[in-house]
Specification:
heterodimer; A: Cytochrome C Oxidase, Chain A; 17 helices; globular; B: alpha+beta; Immunoglobulin-like; 2 domains; five-stranded mixed beta sheet; 4 helices; elongated
Chain lengths: 595, 249
């Protein structure tokens, strides 16, 4: 192993194979079990805690969605009272958006994967990282506590429009704990954002230049910056709302000279970047998985990075497209900027297709989920273009058309791409494989269920059924499409029961994964599964965005601009690296794909 | 012409022919002049989305089915990463498409939002938890109804009706699906728009913006009648309301 960099302070052979759901070794005298969990600052344990907590939130919110769909099976169903119905869709949205989609990718996957991908031993601020998780867990529990208050949980929708969310229209402690929960989880997101940005800028391994970072890490960097732009605005708006509710201010109430629309501006100034905070990490996952399972580098790597930055930049100037029907926003400006987001998103699509083009596609579970993402996001993205045109938005605003649109976009990213990432990195997290058969069953049921649930909702919206209503007119068309939608949601629920079975089987009867079961590209697959306490005892030379691949395929190294092979960099060592390893890698790390 | 090109043309022709008789794609064709304008825009967006979305879909499916790994496939695919001319094409083309869509959007938007200086009728619409009040300024007529009463807003068909919308409590949404139009009723300011209902008829309307407990029941109707019937209705209703001292629903 003359070709790898041995890191100071670690010796080869110290780390051995190991098992357990949560990665990481412990030195003697360090706590284990529960005590380890609550005292840890290891990014891998924290990342895993984030993922487990957010997946629990996902299942809870999914159960709420099932109850909502059950209510809508018939037009005048009396299964739920209006009050409970309003609580359920509010909490479904709040849990999915604030406590699952963001924290799963940004707190969970990013926390675990980004330090590994840049070759760092941990996050830049490990204790701040622990604080992030505890704030998030506290915030999540606070949100759920709403159900235990006398008046029930918040019931004003996940957007909490003023003045519906004031003390007169939404009295009680439920809305207060909702506000408190978002302040807590908002700080958690801000701290994680700071931490990831610092980690990416300052803790990259020798040779890991910015343009050799995996796209997943790039997207997390841009997401971190977006979080720092968006979340403080939300937190500030929530404080204002709380003051309106309890301290007699009139920021959002007309009676005291306030302006209700201000809430919408502040909320969506957070809320629209938030949509991309929820999407960019998942784009990153797809950009990791597609190349690995096509056995090619990502197509148009630099275009991909600039497209991400363009999406982020545009996303800060489109918030008022949620407010077209208020009658008080400058329609052409927000319409043009919203339409323009289709351009960088389109570039991403073509790059994903270019990555698969002439590849050797291997349809393992993560790859199937990525294809599911592409199709879902294509449909969701195109209907998004419709909604960016104010007249079309006037026609379907706040109807099920919008519900279908944002579920296809968000379900496409957070669920299809999110669980693509989960299946993809599960061997790294645990050292075990999930079962392919069960994974594929999960995918196909989910795929059919997804299209069956959300496609009818476009038509329901075109027929004029508003969102957030518990009853609808007895109209044969509406009834049948709503029933189809409910049937689809049952398939989705079954598919996620299968995932639990898959986890259970992999837990009880482990199949050892090895370090690199997918013959993957990036640095995290170079270390053991799960990685040792400080991640690496040695690193391969980093000469492209695919260091592990270059190491394992010395005969087919990465190709840069114009087909120029990176090899001459390796031989001459003249690209400014601080590492002394200049000899070409030998194939000492062959990995075998599992059958 | 090759066999394949002939086949392609044979498949394309019926599509082109169908394009002349554009379907509604499930949307309302619009019962107002404004709504019809929006409907034409929707059709244009639909067609372009079929073309663009179709191309992307075919490319995805082609890569998925054509490039799947065969059994016992040896070696690696070519490790290509950049084709700059191609990247420029798929950056510039979407920009041009978006600009074209934007141009049509602005034209339609100006039609829909245009407010006439001399409307034939004026209705002040007030939304409240959980009902609607339609008052006809200068006519002494107020129509009002809550929850399940489905109040009826009567307007003259074929004429320009000015609607001024406001709310007394929280934000509501004035939405008539068949008009392809909705607008928020927000406390603190009023907004104004025109509708020209083309045909007499009764159109269902509903609040679209979550406004509290009985949001689901905040339904109203718009009844378009001939201008003569409209004037007769105004006179009759004004007389009834003077007599009873109460508004009708």
């Amino acid at each position: 192993m003359t070709d790898v960099i041995t890191l100071p302070g670690t010796g080869a052979g110290v780390e051995g194979p190991h098992e357990g759901p949560v990665g990481g070794h412990h030195a003697e005298g360090e706590p284990t079990g529960f005590l380890k969990w609550i005292t840890t600052t290891d990014h891998k344990v924290i990342g895993m805690s984030y993922m487990v907590t957010s997946i629990i939130m996902f299942y809870l919110a999914g159960i709420m969605a099932m109850i909502i769909r059950a209510q809508l099976v018939t037009p005048n169903n009396s299964l739920l009272s209006f009050h409970v119905y309003n609580e359920l869709f509010t909490m479904h949205g709040s849990l999915m958006l604030y406590l699952f989609a963001g924290p799963f990718a940004f707190g969970g996957l990013a926390n675990y994967i980004v330090p590994l991908q840049v070759g760092a031993p941990d996050m830049a601020f490990p204790r701040l990282n622990a604080l992030s998780y505890w704030l998030y867990l506290g915030g999540s529990i606070t949100m759920l506590m709403g159900f235990l208050t006398a008046g029930g949980a918040a019931d004003f929708g996940w957007v909490a429009y003023a003045p519906l969310s004031n003390a007169v229209n939404s009295p009680g402690a439920g809305p207060d704990v909702w506000i408190l929960s978002l302040v807590l989880t908002g700080f958690s997101a801000i701290f994680t954002g700071v931490n990831l940005i610092a980690t990416i800028f300052y803790l990259r391994a020798p040779g890991m230049t910015m343009f050799r970072m995996p796209i997943f890490t790039w997207n997390m960097l841009v997401t971190g910056i977006l979080i720092l732009i968006a979340f403080p605005v939300l937190t500030a708006a929530l404080v204002m709302l709380f003051c309106d509710r309890h301290f007699g201010t009139h920021i959002f109430s007309v009676q005291g000279g306030g302006v209700p629309v201000l809430w919408q501006h502040l909320f969506w100034f957070f809320g629209h970047p938030e949509v991309y905070i929820l999407a960019l990490p998942y784009f990153g996952i797809v950009t990791e998985v597609l190349p690995v399972f096509s056995r090619k580098p990502v197509f148009g790597y630099k275009g991909m990075v600039f497209a991400t930055m363009a999406i982020a930049a545009l996303s800060t100037g489109v918030w008022a497209h949620h407010m077209f029907t208020t009658g008080v926003v400058l329609l052409p400006f927000f319409s043009l900027l919203s339409l323009l987001i289709a351009v960088p998103t389109g570039i991403k699509f073509f790059n994903w297709i270019g990555t698969m083009w002439r590849g050797h596609l291997w349809f393992s579970t993560p790859m199937l989920f990525c294809i599911g993402f592409l199709l879902a996001f294509l449909m969701g993205g195109i209907t998004g273009i419709f909604l960016a045109a104010p007249p079309i938005d006037f026609a379907v605003h706040d109807t099920y058309f919008v519900v279908a649109h944002f579920h296809q976009v968000l379900f496409g990213s957070a669920v299809f791409a999110g669980f693509a990432g989960f299946y993809y990195w599960y061997p790294k997290f645990t050292g075990r494989m999930m079962r392919e058969g069960l994974g594929k069953a999960h995918f196909w049921l989910l795929f059919v269920g997804f299209w069956l649930t959300f496609t009818p909702q476009y038509y329901i919206g075109m027929e004029g059924m508003p969102r957030r209503v518990a009853v609808y007119p007895t109209h044969p068309g509406l009834e049948v499409w709503n029933q189809l939608s409910t049937a689809g949601s049952v398939l989705i629920a079954v598919s996620f029961a299968i995932m639990l079975v898959n986890l259970w089987v992999s837990w009880r009867k482990p199949i050892v994964a090895g370090d690199n079961p997918w013959d993957a590209h990036t640095l995290e697959w170079f270390t053991t599964s799960p990685p040792p306490h400080h991640n690496y005892t040695h690193l391969p030379p980093i000469r492209s965005e695919r260091p592990t691949w270059d190491y394992n395929h010395p005969d087919a190294p990465s190709i840069g601009h114009g087909g120029r092979v990176h090899e001459h960099h390796l031989l001459n060592g003249h690209d400014g690296d601080r590492v002394g390893a200049t000899s070409a890698p030998t194939n000492g790390h062959e990995s075998v794909e599992p059958k | 012409m090759s066999k394949r090109a002939k086949l392609g043309l044979a498949l394309l022709l019926p599509l082109l022919a169908a394009g002349c008789q554009l379907p509604s794609f499930g949307f309302f064709r619009g019962s107002t002049t404004q709504g019809q304008s929006t409907f034409k825009l929707i059709q244009g967006f639909m067609l372009s989305s079929f073309v663009v979305g179709g191309i992307v879909l075919v490319l995805i499916l082609w890569s998925v089915f054509r490039y799947r790994r065969h059994k016992n496939q040896q070696g690696l695919p070519r490790q290509s990463q950049y084709v700059l001319p191609l990247e420029i094409v798929y950056t510039v083309t979407p920009i041009l498409i978006v600009l074209a869509l934007f141009a049509f959007t602005v034209v339609t938007e100006n039609n829909v939002d245009a407010v006439s200086k001399n409307p034939d009728a004026v209705v002040n619409v007030t939304a409240f938890q959980w009902g609607w009040r339609f008052s006809y300024p200068g006519q002494g007529v107020v129509v009002q109804g809550v929850e399940l009463e489905d109040p009826m807003m009567v307007v003259p068909a074929g004429q320009t009706v000015r609607i001024t919308l406001r709310s007394t409590d929280v934000i509501h949404g004035f939405y008539v699906p068949q008009f392809n139009f909705s607008r928020y009723a927000t406390p603190g300011y009023s907004t104004t728009f025109d509708i020209n209902v083309n045909q007499p008829g009764v159109y269902r309307g509903q609040c679209t913006q979550l406004c509290g407990l009985y949001h689901s029941l905040m339904i109203f109707r718009v009844k378009a009648v001939s201008p003569t019937q409209y004037r007769a209705w105004l006179a009759k209703t004004a007389a009834t309301e003077r007599l009873t001292g109460r508004s009708v629903t």
